[in-house]
Design a protein that fits this description.
Strand order of the largest sheet: 1-8-7-6-5-4-3-2
Largest sheet: 8 strands, parallel
Helix content: 25-40%
Bound molecules: zinc ion
Structural class: alpha/beta
Oligomer: single chain
Amino acid sequence: MTKNKKRGLIDRLNVGPVICAEGFLFEIEKRGYMSSGEFVPMVSLENPEALLNLHRDFQHAGSDIVQAFTYNGHREKMRVIGKEELLEPLNRAALQIAKDVAISPIGEEQNLMAGNISNSNIWNQNDKKSQLEVEKMFREMVGWAVDEEADILIGETFYYAEEAYIALKVMKETGLPSVITIAPYGENIMRDGISILDTCKELEQRGGDVVGMNCHRGPNTMMPYLKEIRKALKCHVAGLPITYRTNNDHPTFFNLPDNNGCSCNTPHETTFPTALDPMQCNRYEIGQFAREAYSLGINYLGVCCGATPMLIRETAEAVGLKVPASKYRENMENHYMFGKNKRIPKHIKDYRNKA
Ligand SMILES: [Zn+2]
């Protein structure tokens, strides 16, 4: 196989797992290149090397898809921060950076570059004008993605069913494979009153190539819905949870109380988004989610907010893949105290229960 040979998304999904890293917002913020709360992906213009590095790190960890970081990079958000004139440059820069990474893979096969649209936050189910505005915003972003030669399109994090339908309609106009994932809030229903399952069924009916869920929910509160979705749909299904321990009382990360002995509370209303760290899933929980999902027939897998390259590697390895970063997977054998290596002195090993 040469570096030019590249299978399409559906061909890949038909024969096995496809891994997609998301969650750039949180990770870029942690790396110091974005303001939390405001969450505008100016990084593609202001610190392009930081975005390139993040994509490369996820690629090294096994992400098959390089998703352009245009989440929140839509006209409305740019208006909120008074920088509407930077909308198109921001989008094109993000798409070009993603493309650069996708066409220079570490292994043999090129990655897929994805254009990206998402929840607009101005959709109003009772206001046709807002809906037309959102459709226009989607259409311009999708247009730039096509210009910059996206291989696929991803519409994600929708909490209004009708907004997801419009996103899918706009994506489908391009003829590119379309991934569409929803992110219902804690009431476990879309904000326009349509059930999670019915929304996904409708998205399949309307031609979504891959339909599923991303963001807002950790493994525990996403999996029950994914099971229903997988059973009911014929198309490929996607599951990309956040990496926090959500539960039935707190199904999303928006109202998750600190349950881990916090001694200095967040100055904000909730632990979201700046004080979620103590509720982080460990890597085994993320791996277990991927393994279970894949065993159910969910082949499009990834991690959203809270994703790190380590967790992407964990996801890939959980479904049987070996990725470049597998070279550096855990090796406790050689740990100076907990390892079994015969060179580790007995007096060090024997002390481990008191360490
Ligand atoms: Zn997310």
